[in-house]
Amino acid sequence: MKPRVNRFNPKRQLLRLSASELEQVKALAGKVRYGGNPEHKRNPGDFGLTPPSGPGLGKSLCDAVQVFSHAAALSYLREGLRRGLVSAHRQGAWPQLIWSVTEEGQALEAQLENADTGQYHGYPMPASDPLAAEVIRRWRETG
Question: How far is CA 67 from CA 10, 78, 101, 102, 124, in A?
């Protein structure tokens, strides 16, 4: 099987929020949930996930950026919401994508997996992803 070539969705873009929109997004931080995806974890830690028997080629691993606990993943997700780093595309109240940055400066992307519960799974963004630099820049602006 050939490894998947990294192709980044060109439709992804960070939304510029008005003050009222930012307040609405910040309110979601207390409701958001993190589920995780075993394809992005070599070591499942306390996520309650069973690693796949054959991990998908081309999947970025949370292990590479030292995200080993559910609490840490949820914290990054909430901070991305508080800072308003969200996509324009939504499913109900929930943005399809939320971005954040680790303390070491690695950009993270979280994708909505359940719009009824507000549950996401996340993964590190490859440095080759053109959006990663924009996420880091906006993160610094909003800090």
Answer: 26, 15, 11, 9, 9
When the pLDDT of each residue in the chain is averaged and rounded to a whole number, the result is: 81
CA-based diameter of the chain, in Å? 48
| 48 phi-psi bin (left φ>0, alpha ψ -120 to 50, beta other) | left
| CA–CA gap between residue 2 and residue 76 (Å, rounded) | 32
Q: What are phi and psi of 101, to 5 degrees?
A: -140, 135
Q: Are 9 and 21 in contact (CB under 8 A)?
A: no
pLDDT for 12-55, tens place per residue? Answer: 889 999 999 999 999 999 999 988 665 555 555 555 555 554 45
Look up residue 36 and give its two tokens: 């995780």
Three-class secondary structure of residue 41 per DSSP: coil
Does residue 2 carry a pLDDT above 50? Answer: no
